Amino acid sequence: MKILLLYILFINILSFALMFIDKIKAIRRKWRITEKTLLSVSFIGGSLGSYLAMIFFRHKTNHFKFKYGLPLMLILHCILFFILNNKIV
What we know:
By secondary structure, the chain is mostly helical. Helices cover 83% and strands 0% of the residues. The mean pLDDT is 94. It holds the Pfam family DUF1294.
């Protein structure tokens, strides 16, 4: 269980940081992190970090994939976490 929590913490910090970096690069009109990368990191467990960054930095808020996809992934990740938590304990 401890490893799962560490993984969730790490992947969400990573997803938050990637969204922040992409926002800064967008402002500076530099090379950007692809949407595929941002969504992939969210899909493998970083949905909370990405969603919080999206709201906090006001980044990707008008993109359908992010506006509706991240909350859906977050709900699914919460359900999966509770299922795994009940089976492990």
